Each structure stands twice: as structure tokens, then as C-alpha cells.
Amino acid sequence: MCGIIGIVGTRSVQERLIESLKRLEYRGYDSAGVAGVVDGHVQRRRAAGKIRALEEVLAADPLSATVGIGHTRWATHGGPSTRNAHPHTAGRVTLVHNGIIENYAELREMLKAKGRTFESETDTEVIAALIDWELEGGKPPVEALKAALDQLSGAYAIGVLVDGEDNLIMGARKGSPLVVGYGEGEMFLGSDALAVGPFTSRIAYLEEGDYVAIDHAEARIFDARGQAVRREVRQVAASAALVEKGNYRHFMEKEIHDQPEGCQRTIAAYVDPLTGRAAMPGGVDFAALERIQIVGCGTAYIAGLLGKYLMEQLADLPVDVEVASEFRYRDPALRPATLAIGISQSGETADTLAALRLCKSRGMQTAVVVNAQESTMAREVDVVWPIHCGPEIGVASTKAFTAQVSVFTALAVAAARARGRIEAAEEQRLVKILLEAPRLIAESINLEDAVRAVAIEMSKARDVLFLGRGPMYPLALEGALKLKEISYIHAEGYAAGELKHGPIALVDELTPIVILAPFDSYFEKSASNMSEVMARGGQVVFITDPDGEAHAPAGARVVVTAPRCDPLIAPLVMAAPIQLLAYYVAVQKGADVDQPRNLAKSVTVE
Length: 606
Ligand code: F6R
Known about the structure:
alpha/beta, Glutamine Phosphoribosylpyrophosphate, subunit 1, domain 1, Rossmann fold, 3 domains, seven-stranded antiparallel beta sheet, 19 helices
């Protein structure tokens, strides 16, 4: 949820802390702060708002430290003010935190009873106060840290400075990720590989319950029981180029345009163009499976819905899909012959992770379709099916979505073959169709100008409805989600067949109705819905293909004509127009496309 960085450097760290925080801004951007050791004492600078506000503070009052920590915040306990911004200080201890301390209220009362006072409303400040309390009791810093950690319940990744220690940063992780970066005479701590990417590519991922002390020369890592441990140092590719915007105005715009390549790389990992076979590595026996349970949140959940449509239709494999936050708490009926598949761009979403852990604890085989291959989910499940679309920085997910759907398309074909539902020739035909998707997605992105024109008009709307049938229904949900999250226009996605069961009451001349309807087996039904909406004065934006355009009832306000394609890949090809629509509506409204209000890219707290 928040991003943290720590540097034990040999030269000034101010600029590098800021560079890293900018890379971490995708995790939250309510406030930011840094702290460093100056002449043996810790100083901090903080600002409400985005990193640029902190930069202004630092321009007026630089921090001349070679050892420092930084934080970008997504507020949970306490509003997004400077007072609540990290780092938080208590006595000799200054720290940054990502996560939620569940027992902070009790700890705060306990510390208040000992005479401690608090200056913020955050849960984080109690961690600092607790460590400081242990230091006061005479423990050396690492022991004081361990004693404090033992009293915390909840999730945390922390970076800690201690006044008087000018060659030390301590860290710890439980429930929130933390990496150690190994440089040349310098050491780093960060929320992820991107955070330390500009400084080093040699990284160790801390494991659950680990804590660490880094200095110029080394990292001393301990496990939850306090035993010294070694964690593998890996070479990680987090190329700077992958997180640059290039010539695009926003990351979201760039990432929409990245999709042909992202899908191509992803598809290439799961199908062989020469043999025409689809193969899912990891040894899942699809023939023996009785059921698949998919869990995810937001856009990832919607990708899962498309997975269900694909797998049930092609492989005759029963699939349940559920939002992870519901699944994990409602005591679902789980059976061992079910494969649990999590979907997550970040691999860190707290609810999805908890849902997968629940499945694992019930003896189910677990898999994840994930972008961050070093993430907690990727490390915990039995089978990892990576997407290969590169880092996604824009908060609104775009290229991860189409890459996830690409994986499910290959998976459905592979499962269909394994379960004897299709022969080799049909598998080859389907693989050939899937391989056409990147080119057709690129053609679909070329509709940009037409979509921009629709967006300019739509930006004045108060409400927008998205309708679709079959695989276009999940896409209607995704269109509505994209629009509301970045343009703040109220939008609803509905199965078009549900129109008459309620939402038709919303139709008036002011409400744009986006109908997604390629010329497939559902087309006639969708065309009737279009007529029903128009008969009530609704302003229809019809997103279809050339055959759909030819057969559509007259009267749509706008028709956007995507390229003709096989129904197998229609969700991939039709995704770009709805993403571009949301994007250009948000741009037209002057909204902050890459960092919409109240959101964060990675939701590592529930
Ligand atoms: C919407 C969006 C979110 C994420 C959701 C899950 O555009 O990006 O709905 O899809 O927060 O995140 P991951 O995929 O990281 O688990």
C-alpha cells in the first residue's frame, strides 16, 4: 500500500531517495517523507501530497545525509496530512512502515500508561515508540527491534533509523514485502525490486517474519525465531527503461499501447507456433481436475470471469470465480480435486493472497497468474503462470488485464486438449487464432481517434452504462470499472439481458449507454437491447466489428468498429476501445490519470 526505501550510502542519498520514491509512487501518493542521519542525529522532511511537494520542502531545506529512509503513503490510519506522513519519530527511533498494525490501539494505550505521548493518528508511530521503549530498557538496536516485533500483530514492512547510529538501517517484514539490495560498498532496503532498481540489480527477498540490519558492508538477516539466516541473492532485471513513459503523456496511455507486445510475449510463453500446441507449465493434470476456483480483485477478478467463460466452453471444466475478499471470509465449500487459481498483477494483493493461502491450507493445489514473478504469491503457490507484459505503473490496470486473459485463453485450449474435448487439429486452429491477437489488438488501438471523439462528449455525462452479453459482459464490467476509477464518472457494467430487470430505468437522453457487441452468436440479442435503449431516448455508443456495423439497427449515436476477429480472442481485441474511452474521458476532464484519487496500485492491506 505504501512504498519504502532505505539507503546506507557512501554519498548523499537525498536525490536517490526521491528517485526511488517516484518509482514507488504507484503504491500510494497521499504524502511522502524522508529522514537521514546528519552529524549522528536523525532529521526528517515530510509533506502532504505527492512527491513533488516533498521535493519543494527539500529544495528549501536539503537533507545532507549519506544514510536515509523514505516513504510514500497511502493513508489507512489517520488522514493524509504532514503530521501523519512517515517517517515517524519516537525518541531515538525514526521509521517508515507499509502495512497495518492491528493491535496498535492497545499498544498505544500501554505506552501512554508508561508516559509516552503521540503526535500522529497513525498505527505506525506505536512501532517507533515500542522500539524506543526497548532501547531505553538497555537493549542494543537489533534486539530492541526484535522485542518490539514480537509485540506486533498485523502486517508490516519497516525501515528504521536510530539516532546515534550512522551506519545502520534496520528492517523487518511480515505480510508486506521487503527486499535487500546489495551495492558496491552501499546497501539498500526497498518495498520491491523497482525501488532499488536504479542502484543495484542484486537483490534478496526477505521471507515472512524476517528482520535485518544493513550497514555499508553487509546485511545481517534473522528469521522470526531470531536465528541468523541467509537469503538467496538474485540478479533481477528491473530495467529503468521499462518504467519510463517514453513519448507518452501518461503511463496508462503507454501501457495501452504496450498491449500487442505484452500479449505477444505472454502468448509465446504458453503456445508453440510450430507445433500448434498450447502448454501450461507446472504439471497440472487438467484431465483429473473436477473444478477450478478462481480468486482475484478488481480487474484481475474480471479477467477471471473471462477465464471461466473460456474454460467452461472449451474444456467443459466447471469454474467458479469469486472476489477474493468475499471468498476468504465466507467459509467456502472446498474440495481437494479443485485447482485454485489466483490472478494478480502485483502478486501482493492482501485478499487474493489470503484466499490462496486458505485454499492451500485445505489441501488444494494452488496456481497464480501473476506479473510480479518475485512476489509473495509467486513464491507461495505450487504453480506460477507469469504474464510477460512488463511492469505496469498506471494505477488503472490495462496491459496486465489483456495478458491475464491471454493466459486463460491458452489455458482453456490446453485444458480442452488434455480433457479430450478437442483434437490436435482443433487445438492447432485455436492456437493459430490466439497468435493473431497481438496484431488485431494493435489494429484496435488504432481506433484511438474515433474513441477520443466519443470521449470528449462522454466527459460531460454524470452516469454511463456498459452492456454486453457472453464474454462482452465481463468486458462491460471492466469498461465501467476503468471509467469510474480514472474519470470519477459513475458507471455500471451489466449483462445486457439484465437490462429489463432494473437498469433500463436509468436510461434517458443524458445517459450514454456503451453496448459491446461483436457479430457473434449473441449479436441479435444485443441488437434488440440496443433498440430497447434507443426507443427510450438512450444515447448508444455501439462498439462492434464490421459485420456488426452492417447488421446493427440504425440510430446509434456513435459506432466504433473494431477489427473482425474470431470470438475466441474478441475480449482481447475489444479491450482497447474501452480502455481508451476511459483514458480520454479522464484526460478531457483533467483528471490525474496515472494516480487517481484514493486509489493505490497495490492493495497490500485488506
Ligand atoms: C483496476 C485495478 C484494480 C486491480 C486490483 C487487483 O484498474 O487495477 O482493480 O486489478 O486492485 O490488483 P492485483 O492484480 O495487483 O492483485
